[in-house]
Target: Exopolyphosphatase
Amino acid sequence: MTEPERPREIAAIDLGSNSFHMVVARVVGQSLQIISRHKQRVHLASGLNEHHHLDQAAMQRGLHCLAMFGERLQGFDPDNVRIAATYTLRQAQNAAVFLQRAEHVLPYPIEIIPGTEEARLIYLGVAHTQPETGQTLVVDIGGGSTELVIGEGFDTQLTYSKHMGCVSYNQQYFPKGKISAKHFNAAQLAAQQKLESIATKYIRTGWQTAIGSSGTIKAIREVLIGLGHSDGIITAKRLNQLIEAILAVKHADDLELEGLSDDRKPVFAAGVAILHAVFQSFHIEEMIFSDGALREGLLYEMEERFRHSDIRTRTAEAMAKQYNIDPDQALRVRETAEKLYNQIEPQPGLAKAELATLLQWGALLHEVGLSISYAGFHRHSAYLLRHSTMPGFTLEQQTVLASLVRYQRKSLKLEEMPELSIYKRKHLYPLIRTLRIAVALNGQRSDEPLPPITVQADKEDWTLTLPAGWESDNRLLAADLQQEQAYWQKAGWTLTLLEG
Model:
């Protein structure tokens, strides 16, 4: 009698500015069963100085926490773990140093995600854990940033991430824990100013339910319950009552509010100021709390990817449409790149399979820069892919896409390639070579299918075998391939052309 197959276990880690969180779940049928949660306050944002450098003490706190998380994840397949880093590591100029050290204590890739991607994943986590239907506003006040999302079902309509959080605002407006009406009003006004540019759009879009998530709003809810509001609903009137209680003391250490933990005290006033600004700017009447947040969004997306179309595919297709890409040419280049790469990596491992997928998206989007101008369009394409809002993609993945399209043609100035943390440059070189060949072979933009072409790779030395006599029948293509050989040679690579 065979033993029943063990349920798949997946884990998500959220490297926040104030706390690191890990949640582990078991996939049971069509649902997730949370089996453990872990949280450690690391105060990462407090180690970020005015030059956006993360100090050694903050790094060490974070690494110590990751080492503890690593003990729980022993034996987990890399495909079953997702780690997302948010505001502080987005801002830190020396984030790469932290990521390199983290590899030694937790052998799973850490994705630094853009603010809009963080907002989308937070919404996804809330949407999967709340029974409410209809238009929903989700607000998440973190240590360094605040995410604001309107969506319905599992789809988002508006996503913004603002640079304001309970840790950063505490440092700026409540120095050394001092509390006063002047400090509180300054923090609230600053938050309202940041929200001013988006408030009208949100109010016009509208929502049926406002939901708060994560630590700041959870702490506010618990304190309101301690003040006698047993339903835990946050209203403008109750926030005013809470503000009065905060302003009754002169220092954060003196906050004696039922439900408020000692480690939350230092940043509590700043969090309340931001939430009150959100209430005022968006004319919110009441807000409920959701346990779902970024880490739950990561979990559900890991499992959802096996049942729904990939959000990144939808993003790439929408971008192709937005920039009027020639779909036939994009498809020709993508199919050629796939066929060539499959010869180089017939059975790619997990990391190379992800890169193969990025190659497909890079091929699909390699001409986005044509919408700006033909001259130097590969550079325009790289800029758009690096700096556009692309739901589903991490900053690293956008950097990979930008690098692929940047080096699709012309000279190979590889020294200009940006630094990567998850992938190494040597991982990208085969993709760049593959895309360059695919672009060159389809340079005539012909509907005629390409004949069988084989490629062999020995590190930097590649051999392309073309059908006998094909080059002589395609003299323009032959000239392009000879020019390509010269570009490769200058980069220290070799492209040999044979006729078979």
Q: What stands out?
A: The chain has three domains: 9-113, 116-293, 309-446.
